[in-house]
Amino acid sequence: MRTINFKNLSLGLIALCAQIAKGQEALPRADLQAIFKVGTEQRSGIPTELLDGTYVVGPITGDEIQVEHYLMIESDINDSEKFFALMIPKPLAKESPKGLARLFQGRKLNGSSSIMLSPLRIDTNGNLEITSETQTKAPVLEISSRPGRHKYPYVIQGRNGAMGGQILGMRGYGGFKPSLKALPQDGVFVSGGKSADVVVNFPEIAFYDGSARGSSFTMLQMNGDEGKFSMMVDNSLDTIAESNIASEEIKRIAIFVNGGCFDSEVLITLQPLTGAGEFNATIFRPAKRSLWEFVFPGRRIPLNAQSK
Amino acid sequence: MKKIIALTTKTIFSTLTLMMTSNLALAQNRNASRSNENQSEERLAPETLGNILDALTNQKLEASPDSSKFVSPTLNLNHLGSQGLSGSVIKDGIPGVHGEGNSMIVDDVVARAYNSVQMIELILEERKTYAMGPRVLYMENGIRGVLKISDKRSDEEALRETLNRGLDIMSLVLPITGATPEASAQWASNFYRTVLTLAAGLQNNDRQKILRINRSENDNNELVENPERYVSGLTSAKYGQVYANLLYSFSTTPGTRAAKAVLLMRLLGYLGHDLNEDLARRSDGVARTITDIYRLQNDPVYLNIVQALRRGFSPSSSELATLRSRTYSIISKLPERLGKAPKFAGLTSP
Predict the structure, then answer these.
(1) How confident is the model over B199-220, as pLDDT tens digits?
(2) A230 by DSSP, 3-state: which?
(3) A239 touching B, CB under 8 A?
(4) Residue A224 DSSP one-character state
(5) Between helices B157-173 and B181-201, what is the axis angle to 10°?
(6) Interface touch B180/A221, C-beta < 8 Å
(7) Residues near B64 by beta carbon (within 8 Å), at least 6 away in sequence
(8) Which member of A146, A308, B186, B305 has the greatest number of CB atoms within 10 A?
(9) For the whole model, what pTM was predicted?
(10) What is the pLDDT of residues A276-295, one digit of tens each?
(11) Quick one: residue B216, left, alpha or beta (phi over 0 = left, psi -120 to 50 = alpha)?
């Protein structure tokens, strides 16, 4: 038996030597782990990293987009890989009190270096809804980095019909950075006579348009205690209960922006439109103080109280 | 003059010191809060793990929600003690004019005054007098009260099932909704409101009657093929479809990965259970959906998420995306396989 085995072995060795002598190669081996990971990890390209702050979105190929936009980003407190982003047109910041704003949640695309901006909308239950989680072909923006030195180091692609399917560029905002705020410095804002005036008495925000029935909302912080976006839910002052009673359904979004593209602190309210992630943005600026008020601010303590 | 200069220098110095210390304190606070955030992102709170582990063991198709966990067979009014009245007064009834000794016994009246739907309407109306946080607790207690009123009424099985599931889901998900208390309170309050609305709409939908016939006469082919001839009301599969749509719509709000994963896994468990209990469980559409759920629950991605939650970590975003995508694929085929879901006020389908 042993002699047969030795015989087979020696025959095999001889055949192998003969094949090597003929110049034949051994079987190539594959890394199975690498094969099974294809499509899950980024293998090339510049990873797109966006920090909290303000970016400018503008035309990269021509003048297809009418106006430049500002994109303001804030990290999601519950998920380090995600962030909230508000896009407003530049004229809204400069002269116009109303305009079309877009609100997104940003997240990395699996197996890619890109970031997806998924529109946020208010659903019929009154919850904030991430559109890309409710439909497979949601209109989203895809942000990617490009190598080299360019005016716009980021490229934005409108996918599934978002932004009219345009290609846009994006860069960091060069000027003094605007800061997003959850709490205002001022309590009274005016709209410039085109809609209601606003009183902010956190967490209440009330709109006055001259009628006896003003509308008021409670602001609930969307992104934790340090978050800047507030969800506005209807409220009413119950005088028997001696408190403001809020409802559960989100009606609008509010955010205070200071500096940057704005000359003073402003309040931006977002009212949902039918398009995914599209909101009607209204800017409210702080009520101006007269020179008299500036020099002689109102007394805080009554005279008779001081004498005691 | 020297005095003035010295005083000014002293003031400037003290102001600077104050500013520096306050900045330092602010920075420390920020660092502390950031480290807290990081912890909350990655690790789940330890007290929630027990609940999640228990829940995940009941995730498979065979699992039936444990209704006895919430429903008490006897009417117990002790819970009213927390509403601001002392226990002894409630025990003896409404205090009379002569004090506690002459209290009027009201248990018999209280037990019959409202039926389940009327009580739900009352809760939905009274909830508005509470602030958002206490409102969640009020509705939770209210749901328990409705379950006691409903007791074992045969025409309210679907109503009780809905309420029990609402409590079950909230007990699992609310503790892991992350560092956004206001958004979580709004979400939870809205969830309970929707659950109560759905439950009120399900009175007289005799789902359990359908189930009983299914269990006793499972081999009757005619019954399996033509359930409408024998029973009326919402079928188990239709109920599962409605509830899955509700849970899916509440799983698409911003929040933690863990909370979303648990919500989706619960959705699959409940849907599988409801379809498997349906008379037409062997029909193509139902059977294929049951199989899809079974396959997903045994998929490595699903098992990895279970493992991550068991270890107290959040699932990865790619795994959650796969779970969501597969779940969406299953529930988006339901209208084609089962027909359109019946509409209830305030409920949307994806």
Answers:
(1) 888 876 655 555 554 444 444 4
(2) strand
(3) no
(4) -
(5) 170
(6) yes
(7) B273
(8) B186
(9) 0.76
(10) 889 999 888 877 766 666 66
(11) alpha
